[in-house]
Amino acid sequence: MSRRSVALWAAAVVAVLGVAAGIVVLRPVVLPGPHTLVAAAWLPTADPRAGGSLPPALDAGVTEVSPTLASFTADGGVAVQQPAPEVQALLERPDVRVIPTVQNYLDGGWQGGLVAEVLADPGKADAHRRELVRTAVQHEWDGLDIDYEALPPTAGPVFTDFLDQLADDLHAEGMRLTVAVPARVNDQDEWGLAYSYQVLGQIADEVRVMTYDHSWSTSEAGPVAPLEWVRGVITYATQRVPAEKLMLGLATYGYDWVGQQGTTLQATDAVELARRVGATPEWVPRSASWTFSYEQDGVQHTVWYEDARSLAAKQQLAIDAELRGVAIWALGGEDPELWTSVAAATRGSAA
Questions:
Q1: Whole-model pTM?
Q2: Topology, domain 36-251+309-347
Q3: pLDDT average per 10 residues of sequence, the chain (351 residues)
Q4: How far apart are CA 56 and CA 77, in angstroms?
């Protein structure tokens, strides 16, 4: 029985009992409202379109913005890139929480091994942690979002120990710690073994599950976030992390594959590509995503991508599971219609 049905049934029982006792009891029936979500969005500073997506995102109720401003350096330091002045002005709005993302993407790849080496050395790990906190305090950020990807399985203990101490340091400064983790549906995913959901759920203020790249740039063509897989990730995650800390990562992009080599493209890029090559995108309900194929210069291409309709379907799973919210990857070139669904979810109204 739904909560709504239970509430109505209870009200009916009260009314009947009141009549039986000779008393007319009129009590208002208070029904639970829809679960609202916190909305966060990553702002990739390398995409010149990202800044233009920030105003509609903020208008839709995005309150946490994570610009990719900071990078892990080869010597364990922190490199910071300043946002464009017009972006900085928007980030200074009082209703925006700025939690920049620190990534370990160097020399064209995710340097998980390098991070593991630094964190395994107590002196280097302490120096890196202090530099992160110093940087966040200096720039008056509201916290840090740690996105250290491709960590080897053996790095799990030093990674969580590092984050535990980092969380204490940030909290002492009145800041928050969020952690981006790869999506998992079981305990056997070797590439995700360094990221213990249960431990991270105790340490971090937010755990942002990157529920995308089920199919990726060097895989066979397919949906980047098939619906049932996303549902499975939520089931796995909520058994290990408090729902009030979980942020469901939502994709705004896709890939154009030739064989097992895919090129990233945002939703607006995919729509424009389909128009240019004369293809008609097909909606696939099972994955809640779009696909089309075309041939160019004798080469067969297959495209899968996520748009506003895709986001709405997966966002609804976050609402149903009563998660803290959603984290959108990424601003810049997204389907502009998706902000309607985000606004509905943050305000508790129907999309």
A1: 0.90
A2: TIM Barrel (3.20.20)
A3: 35 36 46 85 96 98 98 96 94 96 96 98 98 98 98 97 98 98 92 95 98 98 98 98 98 98 98 98 98 98 98 98 98 98 90 55
A4: 34
